[in-house]
Amino acid sequence: MASAAAAEGAAAALRSVLSRAQQAAARSGRAPESVRVVAVSKTKPVGVIRGVYDAGHRCFGENYVQELIDKAPQLPEDIEWHFIGNLQSNKAKALLAGVPNLDMVESVDDEKIANRLDRVVADLGRKPLKVLVQVNTSGEESKFGVDPSGCVGLAKHVKLSCPNLVFSGLMTIGMLDYSSTPENFKALSSCRKEVCDELGIPEEQCELSMGMSADFEQAIEMGSTNVRVGSTIFGAREYPKKN
């Protein structure tokens, strides 16, 4: 069966990615467990995700609310789901109610979505939700994320004004052609230092989510603690064909 073969292929690819991530961590003088690999499964069927789960992986990421709401109930409850796409405030309740094992939202980019998530967590009576502040380090208008100059203010708002959220760090998406990737990563590291100085927390307690399939090893070498790897594990995206 094609789906079984795809699941086996994804599981093998995962093992390779985990090995490469551990080696990159070692090169930067860090322990292998200091880096989390988020297996980004958008557009991929539940059977293929299950194959990666059966290989021992538990952390998966999705970009679209409805897709995650559809998939999560069909998969084991001990998966730690990360939502990594842009989240509209009017979909926050559906996401949190529909995915009880949502572990983290990586894409908080303004006070409005932070406040909405904070209220929804309280209304649902669920445990505090871990969030990352998304920073637009490339300056591209097409990218979501707070400007680096605003990351301290937004992080402060989440930590001090959103009791049902756990400020856990920063996230960025590099440029698509990877031309300024090192600069993007350095910018996020600088933001972390500013945030930690302002909030009085050690940098080790502030995650850096940066690096995807094409550059996750470089990201880890530059301090990333959380890499979002999709196509290298699951293969090319399968978007519906437009008529």
Automatic annotation (TrEMBL):
Signal peptide: none annotated. The modification N6-(pyridoxal phosphate)lysine is found at residue 42. Pfam families: Ala_racemase_N. SUPFAM superfamilies: PLP-binding barrel. CDD domains: PLPDE_III_YBL036c_euk. PROSITE patterns: UPF0001. Its cofactor is pyridoxal 5'-phosphate. GO terms for molecular function: pyridoxal phosphate binding. GO terms for cellular component: cytoplasm; cytosol. Keywords: Pyridoxal phosphate. InterPro entries: Ala_racemase_N, PLP-binding_barrel, PyrdxlP_homeostasis. The keyword Coiled coil does not apply. Residues 30-237 form the Alanine racemase N-terminal domain. Pyridoxal 5'-phosphate (PLP)-binding protein, which may be involved in intracellular homeostatic regulation of pyridoxal 5'-phosphate (PLP), the active form of vitamin B6. Belongs to the pyridoxal phosphate-binding protein YggS/PROSC family. This is Pyridoxal phosphate homeostasis protein. The lineage of its organism: Eukaryota, Viridiplantae, Streptophyta, Embryophyta, Tracheophyta.
